[in-house]
Amino acid sequence: MQIHFENVAQRLSPATCFLAVALCLPMQSFAQTPAPLQWSGIWNAEGSLLTLRVTHLDDQLHVEPVESLGFQWRNSIGTINGNSATINVEYQGVVATVLVQLGDGGTAMVRPLSCQPDYHVVCALVQNQQARFRKVGEVVAQGPGAQHPMP
């Protein structure tokens, strides 16, 4: 698994990579589409098979794995504020709040705002790191409350 991080000159463990990128939610150019519509879709961590399904309802962001690479985590419902969102993630004893910022061209940058306990190796390794996701597909409703990826 290869994941590209800014300011990182080494490969990180899969657990560290997961925390750093699992909440990176790519988006489409916000010059073309209102921000809330940009959140929904199928997002892939660049250089990895890690893929997430993201849907939104009003200012709430729902994230679920499509391809988790075997990682098992829990996440809260995220909160959207324009072109940014925050979401909480729990993974192997770590609780993190992640900031996701929409970018141009169907990309998003994700970075941890907080990570506890700060002495945990995962928190130490993701400090001051960012990850990029790219939107690779759309999610559309096909019935009351149903969300399905478009082929």
Care to give the gist of this entry?
The chain is mainly beta. It contains 3 helices and 11 strands, in the order ααββββββββαβββ. The N terminus and C terminus are likely disordered.
Structure commentary:
The structure is a single chain. The chain is mainly beta. It has 3 helices and 11 strands, in the order ααββββββββαβββ. The model is unreliable at 1-33 and 142-151 (pLDDT under 50).
- The CATH topology is given as Lipocalin
The Rg value, from CA coordinates, equals 14 Å
What shape does the CA trace take? globular
Q: How many strand units?
A: 11
- What portion of residues is helical? 10-25%
Strand order of the largest sheet: 1-2-3-5-6-7-8-9
- Overall mean pLDDT stands at 77
Unreliable runs: 1-33, 142-151
Proportion of beta-strand residues: 35-45%
Domain unit count: 1
Order of helices and strands: HHEEEEEEEEHEEE
The secondary-structure class comes to mainly beta
Report the total helices: 3
Largest sheet: 8 strands, antiparallel, barrel
Question: Which CATH architecture is right?
Answer: Beta Barrel
The CATH class is identified as Mainly Beta
Task: Tell me the distance between the termini.
Answer: 25 Å
Please outline the helices and strands.
Layout: H1 14-21, H2 35-39, E1 41-45, E2 51-57, E3 60-67, E4 74-75, E5 78-81, E6 84-91, E7 94-102, E8 107-116, H3 121-126, E9 131-137, E10 139-141, E11 147-149
Antiparallel strand pairs: 1-2, 1-9, 2-3, 3-5, 4-6, 5-6, 6-7, 7-8, 8-9, 10-11
Overview features:
single chain, 151 residues, mainly beta, Lipocalin, 8-stranded antiparallel barrel, two-stranded antiparallel ribbon, 3 helices, 44% strand, disordered N terminus, disordered C terminus
